[in-house]
Design a protein that fits this description.
Elements: H1 2-15, H2 17-45, E1 56-61, E2 76-77, H3 78-85, E3 92-105, E4 113-120, H4 123-127, E5 132-135, E6 149-153, H5 154-161, E7 170-173, E8 176-184, E9 207-210, H6 214-217, E10 241-248, H7 252-271, E11 284-288, H8 289-295, H9 301-331, H10 333-341, H11 346-382, H12 395-419, H13 423-429
Helix pairs in contact: 1-11, 2-9, 2-11, 2-12, 9-12, 10-13, 11-12
């Protein structure tokens, strides 16, 4: 019976192509806008750390003076980051910044290219579950004794070495030779929680070098630099904050011990004339990934408002569809009257029209997915929103469900009206 209803629905759609097209377009536009905003929200609200969310902690210190900022600064000063790196209070920890360097190989046919570079420690790769294709992270000794070693991304390896195992090969960063120790597989974190300064949709870096080289090479940070007073000297001695710092703390006991260590560190620095804001009751904040994303407003309130507006727009589309469906179904009243006279029940008539409504919803949902994909491609390129050009996997199931259920909701009243048609009225007119 259902296949018969499908056949009747398809024939009805073909009989009134323009009206059916209008309904499909109306629901597809409403679905497309709704799905686009839902997709952005899904990506931004995602916790990319997964089951490690409560083990990775962003370390924040209130190092600024009184009457400065109202909130913790996510970054640390260079001297604080270096002091925390030297401690063994956390099983794993990493300091890091983002910079950019010109990368080339010994092949003269390959032109240098400015690449995003993550200056970090060895523990970064294990803490953030970075997948390796060849090789691995540099030796632990490199974190204390600088060496020109590098980990590159798969796409860089493909460009420079045609995808072959390049471990042991030499590349040049700002004309200085670096030996490749590892090649990571495709890896994109959305949102990019470990460094939100260039935006949560910023593409992950493609080159990784030791943090121990930072003071030696004086790399310029590509990110926020926050200061609260005028100082002479360089970033490496000033009270400006520009270094991200993360610690891995697996158990509540480790977290408590590390917090106690940080409290003790603040006390020792206060003895040296730092951390001078006496209005504070705590100078330490440890945020796991979930709290880190919330405090940094990765999902802004504007995004939630947009979802509400898109749903209202979908409602407007459904009201228009209701009117079109009612008009279309009422034109078929004589046909329905005859069918009722020869034995078709109200339930059969209602079911037939609901199948037709569902088919229109399915077509609108498929077209809406296409609109959403095209819109995301445009937004990704127009506003440089890396990683936003793909639909979240769940959206492929959510979109048809919303489209079909919305269309059927809008079609219930027209279907109910037509199934109540009295056969006698139209038999007399025939």
């Amino acid at each position: 019976m259902f296949s018969h209803y499908l056949d009747l629905a398809w024939r009805s759609i073909r009989k009134t192509p323009m009206m059916s097209l209008l309904m499909v377009m109306a629901i597809s536009i409403g679905i497309g806008i709704t799905i686009m905003t839902l997709n952005v929200h899904q990506l931004m609200a995602n916790n990319p750390a997964g089951d490690r969310s409560d083990k990775l902690y962003s370390v924040n210190l209130w190092s600024q003076g009184p009457d400065t900022w109202d909130e913790f600064v996510v970054n640390l000063t260079y001297q604080d980051a270096m002091n925390l790196r030297k401690s063994d209070a956390a099983p794993r920890k990493t300091a890091m910044i983002r910079t950019g360097l010109a990368l080339t190989s010994s092949n003269p046919d390959i032109e240098p290219k400015l690449e995003d570079v993550r200056v970090t420690d060895r523990d970064f790769f294990a803490m953030f579950s970075v997948p390796f294709l060849f090789g691995g992270a540099w030796d632990a000794s490199v974190d204390t004794e600088p060496a020109n070693v590098v980990v590159i991304a798969k796409k860089v390896n493909d460009r420079l070495f045609n995808g072959s195992n390049s471990v042991g090969e030499v590349v040049f960063l700002n004309d200085k030779p670096f030996r490749i120790v590892g090649v990571i597989d495709d890896w994109q974190v959305l949102p990019k929680f470990y460094d939100l300064h260039n935006g949560p949709t910023d593409e992950t870096e493609v080159v990784f070098i030791p943090f121990s080289l930072l003071a030696q090479e004086k790399y310029d940070p590509w990110g926020n630099i926050s200061g609260w007073k005028y100082e002479e000297g360089s970033l490496f001695t000033q009270e400006k904050t520009w270094v991200q710092f993360w610690a891995e703390l697996d158990t509540p006991a480790e977290r408590e011990n590390y917090r106690n260590f940080l409290d003790g560190y603040v006390d020792s620095q206060q003895q040296l004339g730092r951390f001078t804001d006496k209005s504070r009751t705590s100078w330490v904040r440890l945020n796991d990934v979930a709290r880190h994303l919330i405090d940094n407003k990765v999902v802004p309130e504007d995004n939630k408002i947009l979802i509400g507006l898109s749903l209202l727009f979908l409602l407007v589309c459904l009201v228009n569809i209701l009117g079109l469906m009612l008009s279309k179904f009422l034109k078929r009243a004589p046909e329905v009257g005859v069918r009722r006279a020869i034995g078709a029940s109200k339930g059969h008539i209602f079911a037939q029209h609901m199948v037709e409504v569902g088919m229109i919803g399915a077509l609108g949902g498929a077209l809406g997915l296409l609109w959403a994909w095209v819109a995301l491609q445009y937004l990704s390129k127009r506003f440089l929103l890396d990683g936003m050009d793909n639909l979240d996997p769940s959206i492929w199931f959510i979109a048809p469900a919303i489209a079909i259920s919305s269309a059927m909701l809008a079609g219930m009243y027209p279907a109910w009206v037509i199934c109540r048609t009295k056969p006698s009225v139209y038999l007399k007119s025939q």
